[in-house]
Specification:
This protein is 46% helix and 17% strand. It has ten helices and eight strands. Helix 1 runs antiparallel to helix 5. The longest helix has 24 residues. The N and C termini lie far apart (58 Å).
Length: 245
């Protein structure tokens, strides 16, 4: 059985999941999407409203920000990644909109019970994909995968390790914590030490690690990314200059 078939079987076995209360309000179960043979596994917290409607991960505002960094790093989302979340259903809370006074649904982090209900599916997904490296988007994901209680501001830019039980022995995967796109959407700090710039650096590190591992295990010569990345950066800087004019 190849990876695509194994993932299809896992999705079928998960079926119309009723393992936690999130099933009561979801429109679609967001299982995962991408290349089953990808070397890079990206894990987010949970789907949002757009993802809940489409049944696909990172398709809303956070997805647009993620795509922006992937494009800058010359990472092909469809070919180089499999993307999933630690929960498959939209976790939200009802809040009062300050302008309209109406109740609206706001995406929140999944609870401990929700994460535990979906953990078996996540671990089996990791086992099937068997990635070279895992990208943990945000503190919640980083802690769920590695058990580390540290904050994302201190952990980002470093390679952590997660362990999971394989068939015969424990398996270790490198984990790269990166700021969650939803956090970046709320931040206006574009300074050299700010989250936007450091996230760009983290995606550059992701490329370096992935290319190094591919060369070591597959004998693949790393692609030339720098020139294209510089061109993208120049266009981005020009755009920012126009915005300030």
């Amino acid at each position: 059985m190849n990876k695509e078939e194994a993932l299809t079987q896992l999705r079928k076995s998960w079926g119309d999941c009723r393992r936690c209360h999130l099933c009561e309000t979801r429109k679609n179960l967001v299982f995962g999407n991408g290349n089953p043979n990808a070397d890079i596994l990206v894990v987010g917290e949970g789907p949002g409203e757009t993802e809940d409607k489409l049944g696909l991960p990172f398709r809303g505002a956070s997805g647009e920000i993620l795509n922006r960094f992937l494009d800058a790093a010359q990472i092909d989302r469809n070919e180089e990644l499999w993307i999933t979340n630690i929960v498959c259903c939209w976790p939200y809370q009802i809040i009062k909109d300050e302008r309209s006074g109406r109740d609206v649904r706001e995406t929140r982090s999944p609870t401990k019970e929700e994460k535990l209900a979906c953990r078996e599916r996540l671990m089996k997904t990791i086992y099937i994909i068997d990635p070279m490296i895992i990208v943990a988007l945000g503190k919640t994901v980083m802690q769920a995968l590695t058990g580390k209680g540290t904050v994302i501001t201190k952990a980002r830019g470093e390679i952590l390790v997660m362990e999971m039980q394989g068939v015969h022995t424990k398996i270790r995967y490198p984990v790269l914590p990166i700021y969650h796109p939803a956090y970046l959407a709320r931040s206006m700090d574009y300074t050299d030490d700010g989250p936007w710039h450091t996230t760009e650096m983290d995606f550059g590190l992701l490329c370096q690690v992935a290319d190094c591992l591919r060369e070591k295990y597959y004998g693949k010569v790393p692609p030339e990314r720098d020139q294209k990345h510089d061109q993208h950066k120049e266009k981005e800087d020009e755009g920012q200059d126009r915005d300030h004019d």
